[in-house]
Design a protein that fits this description.
Elements: E1 11-18, E2 22-29, E3 35-39, H1 51-59, E4 62-67, H2 86-96, E5 106-107, H3 111-120
Parallel strand pairs: 3-4, 3-5
Antiparallel strand pairs: 1-2, 2-4
Length: about 120
């Protein structure tokens, strides 16, 4: 696991315990009471500040959430995970941030979500 730097001004680091003995590294920015917006640029990826996205989202009442995929940053490695597991992680993140998850919002739409949909059938 790597050591993470101090959070930039206006951002907060979180460690989210998820199902099983693992955790995800999360970086949030924007209003603390904003509707959660998971900003995930694809697989693999790590939690990083995206000031233009965070400001545009905050202006519209969203709290931007980025996270490090398993095995990146300080997130636990999970052997055997695949792209189809990403939407489930988004739901865990939104609920872990204290929100009821009706629909995870991911920008941009991800091939990972299509993989999950294909895995359902």
């Amino acid at each position: 696991m790597t050591e993470r730097p101090a959070a930039p001004s206006g951002y907060e680091w979180h460690d989210l315990a998820t199902v099983g003995p693992r955790s995800l590294e999360i970086l949030t920015g924007g209003p603390s009471d904003g509707f959660p917006l998971v900003f995930h640029i694809g697989t693999p990826s790590g939690a990083a500040p995206f000031p233009v996205v965070v400001q545009a989202a905050a202006d519209r009442g969203f709290r931007t959430i980025t996270y490090s995929r398993p095995g990146y940053g300080t997130s636990s490695s999970v052997p055997g995970r695949k792209a189809a597991h990403v939407p489930g992680a988004h739901i865990e993140i939104i609920e872990g941030e204290g929100h009821v998850s009706l629909l995870p919002v991911a920008i941009p739409p991800l091939l990972d979500h299509l993989a999950a949909a294909a895995d359902l059938g």
